[in-house]
What we know:
Elements lengths: L2 H4 L2 E6 L4 E7 L6 E7 L4 E5 L4 E7 L2 E5 L2 E4 L3
Antiparallel strand pairs: 1-4, 1-6, 2-3, 2-5, 6-7
Amino acid sequence: MEQSEKADYVVIKAHENGVHVIGLTRGQDTRFHHTEKLDKGEVLIAQFTDHTSAIKVRGKATVFTKHGNIETES
């Protein structure tokens, strides 16, 4: 099985316009490597990979994971 097939996925659903989803890199220096802007009702499916160690969400959204759902507060 390839690494990408084992990586965790998350789903982010925006509850307002302008929700930012930011991918952060792995390694000694954590950096932003990708950003998406979602409008109300839009959904993004994101995957943790060899390059992505964290995902940051700014704005009102629901994040769906295998560990449960999380509502952002801002």
